[in-house]
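The authors assume throughout that readers already know how a fold can be written as discrete tokens. For illustration, here is how one protein appears when written out as sequence plus structure tokens.
>
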Amino acid sequence: MTSSNVILSIEDLYVEFHVYEGIARVLDGISLYVRERERVGLVGETGCGKTVAMKTVMGILRSPPAHFPKGKVVLAGKDLLRMGVRELNALKGRVVSMVFQDPLNALNPVFTVGTQIIDVIRFGKHGRVSNDYLRKRAVEMLQAVRLPNPSRIMKLYPFELSGGMRQRVLIAMALVNRPKLLLADEPGTALDVTIQAQILSLLKSLVEETGVAILLVTHDLGVVREMTTRVYIMYAGQIVESGPTPKILDDPLHPYTRGLLASVPRLTGEVLAEGIPGTVPDYTEVPPGCRFHPRCDFRVDQCSQAKPPVAQINGERQVACYLHSSGGLE
């Protein structure tokens, strides 16, 4: 990795929330990076802190209740955690943009689709632009996301569109100002399986056409294999394993990664999905050391005493596990 081609670098990031029950320590020193034009996945169960990480990058976590006791979020060479509101807003849409998982909540119900896309375009422009340009650019993006009759779609309200159409509108809004990095937070979760496949296929083709880098947040390992070249595995706010997607999915080293793969149902029906016993811990009472150790069949005494160090494997993979050796888990 060279700093010149890295568009996003998260370095030892901690995020806490001061809540009634105490301090919820959600992110526990995560580090990851995305290069220009690269497709990277961030995988973990629901509640593992993936969305908190993405909202931190977008600068939309309010402080308080969110606190950032340690770490950096460097986007295009600038630390987002030390930026003012105006400087941060200058990056949104132009350098980084986000596709949220629920388009019905992400879109404003009282404005038409056209008004919302045009507002995004206008926000991303430094000077004045003509209304003709704004409308033309909005229609172009609706065509780019394969929506039929975009001139008609411009006049509709979000509730008049199907879930798949709303998600396409969100993708259009995210890409309309040609950002360098796209954050996609489970963009197909709120859709049925057929439409989800169409949306992910569309997103993949648009990423390839535009050259935008993407950080895809999901818990679907099939999507990760299809969409990404590198992947980070997150559990309870800790990155437990990372590396090239095929190697992680074909030869997982961390017990949590193995558990995720064992949880995937087989179409043949010959082997039932095993699942992982237990649940993600309460962030106000996280276990010490490796946060996965209460659910791990391979745990040793060290696991509950201190956070495991990150081991480098063949220069391209990393795993945080005391049971790791040069030959991997046996």
About this structure: The chain has one domain: 3-320. Residues 326-330 have pLDDT under 50 and may be disordered. The first strand starts at residue 6 and ends at 19. Residues 3-320 form a domain with the Rossmann fold fold (CATH 3.40.50.300).
